[in-house]
TrEMBL record:
GO terms for molecular function: protein kinase inhibitor activity. InterPro entries: ITPRIP-like, Mab-21_HhH/H2TH-like, MAB21L/cGLR. It comes from Indicator maculatus. This is Inositol 1,4,5-trisphosphate receptor-interacting protein. Enhances Ca(2+)-mediated inhibition of inositol 1,4,5-triphosphate receptor (ITPR) Ca(2+) release. One of its GO terms (cellular component) is plasma membrane.
Length: 549
């Protein structure tokens, strides 16, 4: 019974569940909607996967960009470090360059003149001359007394005679010149070895310079190689002289610099004025169609003027006067009736501004010097300051100092050697320059008379060093240690040092000849000195010893 009741209840419940009024018709489509939902869910799932892939790609791109930025930062950092290292090396190079430049400035201001006296400075020297016999003090003293002093005793009397005659000749020259048109000649001055008391070889020749100036209203305006104007390297030591009216503007008229048309006329300068001005310039010894003083024209004018002056006073003297050298305007020779003669140079010069530096019309040049392309270039001579420096420094040296003796002995040896083997590129001026450098470099007490042997060796060593380096600097040009008492122009002290041995770089054959002559002189030194030395007891001759240069 209970089982039956249960069955009936189950049937009723089943009927109720399946009754159409209880569940609507559309509920029967549930299976179809489930498939759409599943399909949409699949599409959604696929969309999410695509979105996930896109996000992953974006994340990967972002990471790649970050890595690129990091790499770029590393490169920049490395380049910064490299640049820092490069800047450091650049700065270090600049420091080294500045040190070199400072050393070069010291070199110009006079440190280049120091010989140092150290063996290191002379290490390059003497390798080919070990064993060269060098005379000792006794032999040198005897040679100096017998050969040098015995032949230079008449120099003072000769200087006095030449100066007196030159003054008389110049006075006559002024009287024959036209004061309104010709150059104005001043008093002469003695320069060179005869007036510095170190000339040893005959014939003795007095060198006199004669300053001259243009007539009023003209004046000289000079330009030098170190005044900022463009001069070629082979014209260092030279300058030009422009003849101008005293009231003339340095800039000049614009018609000289501007090309005027055919229908335009300068109201200041007509064609006639231009022609007349050109003739005036030629009358003022200028180069053709220029305002620059011509050395050749000056030579012709001076020779004619001297000839006229001598014709006026020749009756007062019992000798003849003639020009001894055609290429030098004032190379004169006095010929006595006895057959004896006296030579002297009377050379016209132009003063540089208000100093004692002079432009010299014709300077005796060695075979090293090239011919000047233009006669408008004038050589500058510092002979007056050189004489004053020797006089000034001599006051600080011991009595009977040996500086002049050293120069005389060296000049004699070199001249004697050249007479045997022919001329070389060395001149007495080079030897004098060596002495001037050593006078400034060595203490005063080192020039005592008993140190003649040591100082002569120093001069030979210094000269050999200069020959080896092909560098011997002018004593005054570029020397910032010139004594202020001399009043030397500052423009030349600040100039680049002038290498007197520069021609040796260009003329190797002359350089080789010069070096060979110098070496031969060293080897023959003892023989040359002993030839003119009186007999010395054996106890003293043992002093001849070997020196290595």
């Amino acid at each position: 019974m209970p089982v039956g009741i249960f069955r009936v209840c189950l049937v009723v419940i089943t009927a109720l569940v399946n009754h159409p009024l209880l569940f609507p018709k559309e509920n029967g489509t549930v299976p179809e909607n489930a498939e759409e939902i599943i399909q949409k869910m699949k599409e959604r799932e696929q969309s999410l996967r695509l979105q996930q892939l896109r996000f992953e790609q974006e994340i990967a791109d972002q990471e790649a960009r970050e890595k690129t930025v990091e790499k770029a930062a590393e490169v920049v950092e490395e380049s910064t470090e490299e640049k820092f290292r490069w800047d450091m090396w650049t700065a270090l190079s600049m420091v080294v360059f500045l040190l070199i430049e400072l050393w070069r400035q010291d070199f110009q201001e006079g440190n280049w003149q120091d010989t140092g006296g150290e063996e290191d400075d002379m290490a390059v020297l003497g390798k080919a001359f070990k064993g060269v016999a060098f005379p000792d003090k006794a032999v040198l003293a005897s040679f100096y007394e017998k050969r040098i002093l015995a032949t230079t005793g008449d120099m003072a009397r000769m200087r006095e005679m030449v100066e007196g005659f030159a003054d008389d000749l110049l006075e006559a020259l002024r009287s024959v010149c036209n004061r309104d048109a010709d150059m104005e000649v001043e008093d002469c001055m003695g320069v060179g070895s005869m007036y510095e008391n170190w000339r040893v070889r005959k014939p003795f020749v007095c060198d006199l310079i004669v300053p001259f100036a243009p007539p009023e209203p003209y004046c000289f305006r000079s330009q030098t190689w170190c005044s900022g104007d463009s001069f070629p390297p082979d014209k260092q030591g030279y300058g030009t002289i422009k003849v101008c009216r005293a009231d003339e503007d340095m800039a000049g008229c614009i018609c000289d610099k501007t090309k005027l048309g055919e229908d335009m006329l300068c109201l200041l300068h007509s064609q006639a004025n231009t022609t007349r001005r050109s003739n005036e310039m030629e009358d003022l010894l200028c180069f053709k169609n220029t305002q620059y003083l011509d050395a050749d024209q000056v030579m012709k004018w001076f020779q004619i003027a001297v000839t006229k002056a001598w014709n006026r006073i020749s009756h007062k003297y019992e000798f003849d006067l003639s020009f001894s050298l055609l290429d030098l305007p004032g190379a004169l020779k006095i010929k006595f009736r006895s057959g004896k003669s006296i030579a002297f140079n009377l050379t016209p010069v132009v003063q540089y501004e208000n100093s004692d530096v002079y432009f010299i019309s014709h300077f005796p040049r060695s075979g090293l010097a090239a011919d000047l392309p233009s006669s408008t270039h004038w050589f500058l001579t510092f002979a007056v300051y050189e004489r004053r420096f020797i006089q000034l420094i001599s006051k600080t040296l011991p009595a009977n100092a040996c500086h002049v003796s050293c120069l005389q002995i060296l000049s004699f040896l070199h001249g004697k050697q050249c007479s045997l083997t022919g001329p070389s590129g060395l001149t007495n001026y080079h030897l004098k320059t060596v002495m001037l450098h050593l006078l400034q470099a060595c203490p005063s007490q080192d020039w005592a008379p008993e140190k003649l042997e040591a100082r002569l060796q120093d001069m030979l060593k210094f000269l050999e060093k200069c020959l080896h380096e092909k560098k011997l600097y002018h004593f005054f040009i570029g020397n910032g240690r010139v004594p202020a008492e001399l009043g030397f122009p500052i423009i030349f002290q600040r100039a680049e040092p002038l290498n007197l041995f520069r021609p040796f770089v260009l003329h190797r054959d002359v350089y080789r000849k010069t070096v060979d002559t110098f070496h031969e002189m060293l080897r023959n030194m003892s023989a040359l000195i002993n030839e003119y030395t009186v007999h010395i007891p054996h106890a003293h001759t043992n002093g001849i010893h070997k020196e290595s240069f």
